[in-house]
Every structure is written in C-alpha cells, then in structure tokens.
Amino acid sequence: MILLKVKLINFRNYKETEIHFHPGINVLFGRNGQGKTNILESLYYLSLTKSFRTNSDQSLVLNGSDFFRIQGNFVSDQEKAISSAIAYSPVDGKRLNFNGQKLQKFSDYIGSIPIVLLSPSDLEISQSGPYRRRQFLDIMLSQSSQLYLHHLLEYRRAQKQRNALLQTENFDKSTLQAWNESLVKNGAIIMEMRKAAIDKLDQQVKSHYRTLSGSSDNTKIIYQYSFPLKNSTDISGTYRSALEQAEQKDRQSQTTSIGPHRDDLLFLINGKPLRVIGSQGEHKTFVIALRIAEFYYLKSIHQEAPILLFDDIFGELDPVRIANMMNTLSQIGQVFITTTSANFFNKIESWQQETSFYEIINGSVSIREKV
Q1: How far is CA 58 from each of CA 13, 53, 66, 126, rounded to the nearest angstrom?
Q2: What is the 3-state secondary structure (H, E, C) of 359-370?
Q3: Which part of the chain is CATH 1.20.1050.90?
C-alpha cells in the first residue's frame, strides 16, 4: 500500500497542511519539536484510530481549535484507490469515513490500512516488563484478524467483570463460573493465535537480525504462558483447570492472576535472555528485526504491503547497521523516517536508493531535492 497524500486540519501543530509523498523512502527531517513525529502520529491514528503517544484525543487538537481531521489517499498493491478520513471533537467524538462510507464500528476498520511503527519507546519491548510485549502482539494480530480483535475485546470485558466480582464480598459462585467460561472461550483462541504468530515471526526475526547486525548470532522467541501447559492441544481444558485452582488466590488478591493478559514473550540471543545480556545496539537491532518481521507477517495476511513508520531510530546504531537497515527498508515498501539530520545518508557508502526529503520547520513542510 502506498500513501499518496495526507491532509491535516488542526492536528497537533498543523493548522491546515497537505503533503504529497512518494513510494519508497520518505525522510522527514528537522530540529526537535518542529512536528516530524506529529506526521507519523497522524498516519498511525488514521490506521488504528488512536495515537501511539497519548490516550487523550483532546490533546491532539491544535490549541485554540475545537476539532481535528486527518484525511489520507492511498493506492493498494492491486492499484485500487483508497480514501480514509477520521475526525475528532469533544462534542461529537470520533467520526470515521472509509471509501465514502461512514463507519460506526471501528473494529471492522482496523487492518484496512496496515501499518507498522518503530519508535524509541519500542526498546521497552525487549527491555521492560511483559505489558509492552503483549501490546506488540495485540496490535499486530488485531490488524491481521478481526476474529482476534473480537475475542480480545470479549476477553477484556470478561476479565473486567470477573475482577469486579472478585472485589465483591459475597457473590454467586455460578456467576464466577460463567465469567470463567467466557475467559476460557476467548482466552484459548487468543493464546492459540498468538503462539501461531510467534512461530511465524521467529524465523523472520532470526534472518533479519543477522542481516542487520552482519553477524551469525542466533535469536529465538518463546511464548510463555502464565500457567503450566503440558498439553498444547488442550489449552482450553488446561486453562479452565488453572483458573479453578487459582480461585482462592484470586479472591484474596481481588484480581485475575492467570490468562493471556499475564502471558509473556522471552527473547533469546545465542541461547541467553536478550533482556539480561544485550547491549543497547543489540536491543535496537532486535526490535527493528521484530518490526520488519511484523511487516512481512501483515503482508502475508493481507496480501498488501503495510506502511512503515520509523521515528528517530538511528541512536545506538553504528554506520554498518544503519546501512544494512536502510538497504533492507528500501526493498520492501513505502517507509517514513524522521530524523534530526538527514546528512547521514551522504555518509552511507554505496547508498544509491531513491529517497525523498521533507524539511519540517514549526509545522511547515518543504520538499527538498537533496540535503
């Protein structure tokens, strides 16, 4: 999929701006605080109907305005024209229009414009707690499958209701059992789909990590369940039994202690935990490889190349890894990259890929032939 142009009205520091983009690599450069990441944020919002930087839609509205609107025009890999627009105001909330049709159910839209984002905070995927690793999986799989998103939303509803019940002093045991069954029904499907996705991602990450690092290091991704799973063909039965065994513990803690909301991913490099032994450069190389693997996973599902957003990712990478990464990106689809200085392209040996440059100064965008 190729983004031809985006129009921003009252979004962040953009009053009214229309930007035309090119296939291949698009570099947005400028000093910090000028609005480079705001453009990537608008594309992410248009794809997933939410920001990757804040949970407050109100904070995205330009100061002094009472709404924002993002409109994008795309062409699919099958050369089909696609248009999408999303608007927000405190009075009307979010309104979404896709190919001229107003959509009421946003969950039906997710995945229509597949997108992959790599930002500085992605180092948390490999370095911090399990929440970010689960979030990575949930966003990827929600874009790839409406079935997954449906079961994820149903699971979260059941988990919320079960937790509320556990916080009640006296409750009907049959009601708890009903919520347990909802958790098992939806949770088992979530875990099965996650495990299948990890099996596909694992080999892709290993290959891309070696290409990016120029090494022969072996990486491995292992899906870790929050309860012992001896029989992988009976996740539902094992999960149901584990929930029953954890009931007394859950009543004391007043929260659900096991399930896909507590599962994790283990990243290994040469058989050792990346989180423990990895350098900053190795962590960044791994998450870049992970995002590129996500790109190919979504492409295989949709038969459509996702749009890649790379936000300020060159820190901790040496020139060799930067050159390897850029050569990899130039071959797979449309890429948007933000950086404070685009001059490094001139320093990469044998860099001959066609690259478009956009200078961002205080919410104003200028196309540059070269830097």
Answers
A1: 13, 13, 9, 31
A2: EEECCEEEEECC
A3: 122-302
Task: Render each residue's pLDDT in the chain as its tens digit; 371 residues.
Answer: 999 999 999 999 999 999 999 998 899 999 999 999 999 999 999 999 999 999 999 999 999 999 999 999 999 999 999 999 999 999 999 999 999 999 989 999 999 999 999 998 999 999 999 999 999 999 999 999 999 999 999 999 999 999 999 999 888 899 999 999 999 999 999 999 999 999 999 999 999 999 989 899 999 999 999 999 987 789 999 999 999 999 999 999 999 999 999 999 999 999 999 999 999 989 999 999 999 999 999 999 999 999 999 998 776 566 777 777 777 777 788 999 998 877 666 655 555 567 889 999 999 999 986 55
Tell me the Ramachandran region of residue 115: left when phi exceeds 0, alpha when psi lies from -120 to 50, beta otherwise: beta
Superfamily of domain 122-302: RecF/RecN/SMC, N-terminal domain (1.20.1050.90)
Nearest to 183 by CA among 133, 244, 116, 129: 244
pTM (predicted TM-score): 0.92
Output the six-digit token pair for 5: 């142009």
| Angle (CA) 106 112 116, round 5° | 105
CA distance 111 to 127: 28
Structure tokens at 245: 């065994």
Q: Is the dihedral of CA 143, 144, 146, 149 positive or negative?
A: negative
Which CATH number does 1-114+304-371 carry? 3.40.50.300
Separation between Cα atoms, residue 99 and residue 122, nearest integer Å = 32
